[in-house]
Amino acid sequence: MTSTTPPEIAAHVESLIPKFHLTRLLNADQAGRRIAILGTITTQPALLIAERAAFPTSTAQLTHFPTSLRNIRNLGANDIYAWFLANANPHSSDDDDEQAPDFKLNLIYPCTDKHIKKYEQQRLRVVTETPQIYSKYVRPYMHAQRAKGALNWVYNIIQGRTEQEDVMYRESGDEGFLLLPDLNWDRKTMGGLHLLGLVERTDVWSVRDLKRGMVGWVKHMRERMVEATVGLYPEIERDELKLYVHYQPTYYHFHIHIVHVSLEAGSTQATGKAIGLENVISQLETMAGETEAGMQDVSLTYHLGERSELWEKVFLPLKEGREVKVDEF
């Protein structure tokens, strides 16, 4: 970006930054990507707000990005997923333990077409999934995805084969669950806290499987996950946490997201993706019918990317009046 500031003024203000002397941190938000610090410059109070600059997008710069990284430190790995901290400073050395990481990296290798479609920029569409669409098309789609082995990494964790060093809390039994850090949390910034609660039972694929007779179990999950989180992080209080589920979820094994209330609400917490767990509990409690009545009986509205399989194979054909080819899921 080219500056329009006159050169003499630009030179003056640039010389001020090295003179900044820290007084205290005022705030850290956007999951630690932006900070506001109070200090002084030549005895006068000053505020410095710093945030990560935008990534370069030219092919030439992106080509050299992976090889420019230094101090790459793995945080965990499971199946095709791995995540790291790294530095972009080309002058930092591999043994510089004090160098603060510039990047949190996630690696999916080998990735699939589904991964590519998930992360590629695309137009979004709002769809309404009726109980009929769910039972006739979406449920068979879920079954097909599970049959392809897409949940191997989840079962690896639950069954104790991998990533056990990342299991922060575990309860076993009929109401068992595990707490793990989300891939996108740096595990240090409390305002960006994001944990995943994986339930051990395998008969609940998504929020759609929750029934009125399961309210007690869902409440137990919520209570125990909150208790475990504040036990792990005593500086966080119960009313600083919010719990939600995704629909559609990224994978079809029931899990609950536990995040700090100050975590910036991006697209994954937005309407059309996230459903508050307390709202789910309330809906189940007030639902008419017997114990088998549940979330499979309601319409859910959410958004999909145009390159997602659900849009391409279910909702686009329905919109255009074409046949949904269930046998091709």
From TrEMBL:
Catalytic site: H255 (nucleophile)
Gene Ontology CC terms, in alphabetical order: nucleus; P-body
Domain of life: Eukaryota
Family named by the database record: Belongs to the HIT family.
Molecular-function GO terms, alphabetical: hydrolase activity; RNA 7-methylguanosine cap binding
Entry protein name: Scavenger mRNA decapping enzyme
Pfam hit, one: DcpS
InterPro entries: DcpS/DCS2, HIT-like_sf, Scavenger_mRNA_decap_enz_N
Taxonomic source organism: Decorospora gaudefroyi
One GO BP: deadenylation-dependent decapping of nuclear-transcribed mRNA
